[in-house]
Design goal:
single chain, Uracil-DNA Glycosylase, subunit E, two-stranded antiparallel sheet, alpha/beta, 38% helix, 9 helices, four-stranded parallel β-sheet, DNA damage
C-alpha cells in the first residue's frame, strides 16, 4: 500500500504514517491485497481525502467498513460507483434526503459530488476482504481514522459531524463539541431505520441551516 494522500491532509497526518502501528498496518494491507481480493481498489483507499480537501471541509460523515461486494466500494463511506445497485443503507439515506429536502431520489449512488463540496465520507476501516465484513478491523485503521477525527477537531472550527448509529456515536469523545457541531441519529441500515431511529432525523436540512448560520455555502445533497 502506497500512502498517496492529498497534499492538504499531509501536514496534519504525516506523523501518523511514521508511527509503528501504521507501518504494521501497511504491511498487513499489502499482504491482503497480494493474496486476496480486497476492496476498494488500491488507488481508492484514500479517496475520501482526495475528493475533500482539508481547507474545504464542512461536514464529516463516519461509516464503519467499505462495502465488500464486487464493484461497490469506491473509498467513500456509503457511496457506490455509478451504475451499481444502491445498498440498503444508501437507499435509506437517499429516502431521507428526498423527504427532508423535497428532492427526487437520485439514479447514481456515487457520493463524489458530496465529497467535492466539503463532505468527508470517512470509513473507520478503509479496506476489507471480499465478502468478509469486518475482516480488516482491529489492524490499525481505527487508530488512524480516530487520529484523523481528532486532528480535524483540533485544526478546524465549525465542522458538522454526522454520527449515525452506535459505532459512529462513540467517536463523539474525539470531537471538541465547543468548537464543532455534532448531530446524532440511528444508523440508516434497515434494522435501525425500520425501528424508527433513522427516518425523520432531518440531518441534511439541519446541516444546511448550520452552514447558512456560519455564512458558508450549503451542500447540494
Amino acid at each position: 500500500m502506497q500512502v498517496k494522500i492529498a497534499d492538504s491532509w499531509k501536514n496534519i497526518l504525516q506523523t501518523e504514517f511514521e508511527k509503528p502501528y501504521f507501518k504494521q498496518l501497511t504491511a498487513f494491507v499489502k499482504d491482503e491485497y497480494s493474496n486476496h481480493v480486497c476492496y476498494p481498489k488500491g488507488k481508492d483507499i484514500f479517496a475520501a481525502f482526495d475528493f475533500c480537501a482539508l481547507n474545504d471541509l464542512k461536514v464529516v460523515i463516519i461509516g464503519q467498513d467499505p462495502y465488500h461486494g464486487p464493484n461497490q466500494a469506491n473509498g467513500l463511506c456509503f457511496s457506490v460507483k455509478d451504475g451499481i445497485a444502491h445498498p440498503p443503507s444508501l437507499i435509506n439515506i437517499f429516502k431521507e434526503v428526498a423527504t427532508d429536502l423535497g428532492k427526487e431520489y437520485p439514479k447514481s449512488g456515487n457520493l463524489e459530488k458530496w465529497a467535492k463540496q466539503g463532505v468527508l465520507l470517512l470509513n473507520a476501516t478503509l479496506t476489507v476482504r471480499a465478502h468478509e465484513a469486518g475482516s480488516h478491523q482491529k489492524q490499525g485503521w481505527e487508530t488512524f481514522t480516530d487520529a484523523v477525527i481528532q486532528q480535524i477537531s483540533k485544526e478546524k472550527e465549525g465542522v458538522i459531524f454526522l454520527l449515525w448509529g452506535g459505532f459512529a456515536k462513540k467517536k463523539a469523545k474525539l470531537i471538541d463539541a465547543k468548537k464543532h457541531h455534532i448531530l446524532e441519529s440511528g444508523h440508516p441500515s434497515p434494522l435501525s431505520a425500520n425501528r424508527g431511529y433513522w427516518f425523520g432525523n432531518k440531518h441534511f436540512s439541519k446541516t444546511n441551516a448550520i452552514l447558512k448560520d456560519l455564512g458558508k455555502d450549503v451542500i447540494d445533497w
